[in-house]
Amino acid sequence: MTAPASHPVWCLPARCARLKVHVSPVLPVDAQHGEDDVIDVALVQEWRDDAHPQVSATVQAGTEVRQVLMSTGQAQVFIDQVGRLLELLGEVTS
Ligand SMILES: [Zn+2]
Questions:
Q1: Based on CB atoms within 10 Å of each CB, which residue in 11, 28, 73, 91 is the most buried?
Q2: Integer Cα distance of 41 and 27 in angstroms
Q3: Distance from residue 34's CA to the centre of ligand 1 (Å)
Q4: What is the DSSP string of 2-45?
Q5: Beta 38-45 vs 27-28: how paired, if at all?
Q6: pTM of the model
Q7: CA 4 → CA 21, 42, 69, 82, 89, distances in Å?
Q8: What pLDDT, in 10s, does the model give residues 21-68?
Q9: How many angstroms does the Cα of residue 84 sit away from the middle of ligand 1?
Q10: Of all helices (H) and strands (E), which one includes residue 87?
């Protein structure tokens, strides 16, 4: 696979070259600094010209690792729905 001529502004070219996919910095989802399960999120995008950015959520539970890819639109709905659930708990103050 030929490396792309350019990268999205959010891409880390060194990781991109290694993984053969545009990839952003990986952001941890760790509210208590020591959750049992490790969750990270990142942007990814295949090198194809017609590819779109996706949100990757990777969950490591013990030795098992699962990755979920979603469109940016689906990720926005996910955020909104989680916000609605947290509002039900009274844990969202804004
Ligand atoms: Zn890239």
A1: 11
A2: 5
A3: 31
A4: PPPS---TT--HHHHHHHTSEE---EE--SSS--SSEEEEEEEE
A5: antiparallel
A6: 0.85
A7: 9, 19, 21, 35, 45
A8: 999 999 999 877 777 788 999 999 999 999 999 999 999 988 999 999
A9: 34
A10: helix 72-89
The token duo for 67 is 């990755």
- With beta carbons less than 8 A apart as the criterion, state whether 47 and 37 touch: no
User: Taking residues 66-85, what's their average pLDDT?
Assistant: 97
DSSP 74: H
The torsion angles phi and psi of 21, rounded to 5 degrees, stand at: -160, 140
CA separation for the pair 83, 19 (Å, rounded): 32
Distance 49 CA to ligand 1 centre (A): 12
Specify whether the CB–CB gap between 31 and 19 falls below 8 A.
no
Distance 41 CA to ligand 1 centre (A): 17
Cα 5 to middle of ligand 1, angstroms: 9
What is the whole-number distance in angstroms between the Cα of residue 43 and the centre of ligand 1? 11
